Amino acid sequence: MKNILTALLFCMAFQLNYAQETYTLQDENLELKTELEGKLDLLWNTFDGVYRYFVRTDNGDIIELKNTKGSNNKYQEEYKTVLSKLTNGSNTKKLKLTVYDLKKFLDAYNQTADSSYVSVERERKIDFRLGFSGGITNNPFVSNPDNTISPLIGAELEIFESQTLPRHSGFLQARHAFESDAFKYSATEFSLGYRYRFVNSSKFALYGQVKFATLNFTNSTVIGSTNNTLEISETAFDLPLIFGIGSDIKVSENGFITIIYGELFSVFLDNQDNFSTDISIGYKFNL
Known about the structure:
Layout: H1 2-18, E1 20-25, E2 28-36, E3 41-47, E4 50-56, E5 62-65, H2 78-86, H3 99-113, E6 126-137, E7 150-161, E8 168-177, E9 185-200, E10 204-223, E11 229-238, E12 242-250, E13 255-266, E14 278-286
Antiparallel strand pairs: 1-2, 2-3, 3-4, 4-5, 6-7, 6-14, 7-8, 8-9, 9-10, 10-11, 10-12, 12-13, 13-14
């Protein structure tokens, strides 16, 4: 885990360094980040806590976008005049001097000025899948001396960003493990989790998943010290990091058969000396 985190941090640092270059402007050496590239580029950085923004034209000229105070102590908003001229009179009346607003403004202009320009401001939409499943479990994180298998049912709502082949998704899941004659234990669990599809094609996906947070309502029957029967009901909230694997098999335009090995192991829960048997088969569809 530590090696993975180190590698991720290294990649992030590399990307940040790659996106910054040093420029000499009016006897200043400024290290600037390239936020947007097109007919007009957006460059910026912070210096001693002050944000400074620049536009680079297609002939290489770099112009600072300023908003200085005049003698009347009011902001002059020079950047609006500069950008209006550079964009052939675009309306800058409501334009704010922030990375977000400048990027959005220049991205819109670059789309109109260059037909080959690809917008970076794609509208993000969220899609949902609803699924139902049934299977078996040995309740791997609960004391189960005889390793008894119990029936399991579940339902989930999967959430992902709209795209042709979504690789990342989150899910809200509800599942219920029934008690059996040999194992007087039942549990209803609500969980929040994340999935990553490391095999991701139009017909088949294979993914790893982790449940970050769980809320469990359990009922069990135990024999007390005097051979009396005790009914125990408990409610528990955990952050267990329960890992599993699964697959989606596309069977129609909007439908998938799912196979999930939901509780393979946990970082913070013990497997109670039983190898996990927690398998469900179900169906989910796009909403």
